[in-house]
Amino acid sequence: MDNTAQPEPGAAPGRPPRAPFAVRLTLALWGAAELALFFFVVYLLGFGWAVLLLLGTSFAGAMALGSFGRRSMESMRKQFAAAQAGADPRTVKPDENLPDGTAVAGAVLLLIPGFVTDLFGLALIVPGTRHLLRPLVNRFAKTSNLGKKYNARGEVVIDGEVVSETESPVRDDTGTVIEGEIEGPPRDER
């Protein structure tokens, strides 16, 4: 089976394939919404205040991420201390007030400059709306293709090396593995 990726028809050689149309359209609409909302805030508050507000929300996102990280580390320390003290690990419960992945995603969205992402980030951090949006975020995380590579036929490509499972290492009489390749007899003796 040929596993080499074929370029898409009409693509320039050596260039990566383009993102699907839906992704490009979504990014374009998101960028347009960010610009429109930024200009609206500039109209209401002025340019300096709009930039200061963007910087402030990014700072708030960094502070939220730091707070979530500290709380998570403190909870882990408590669990490790309880386990070292002899407590059954199954009975040691994590802190109920720990942020979940939805709140962390909201803090990351706050870090990204832009008022649209800030609004989504705040909605994911505030506990009342976080619980409403959690199923949507979970569905996106399960169905997103982040980090996956595809070939030209749309098949998932896993980087790696093929290793034969049937071959066992060659050992000498002492049990030491002998490194190298096995070569056949010279061509003239065949």
UniProtKB/TrEMBL annotation:
Region: Disordered, residue numbers: 166-190
Keyword Transmembrane helix annotated: yes
InterPro entries the record matches: FxsA
Transmembrane segments: 21-43, 49-68, 103-126
Keywords attached to this entry: Membrane, Transmembrane, Transmembrane helix
Signal peptide start-end: none
Taxonomy, superkingdom: Bacteria
Official protein name in the record: FxsA family protein
Naturally occurring in which organism (per UniProt): Salininema proteolyticum
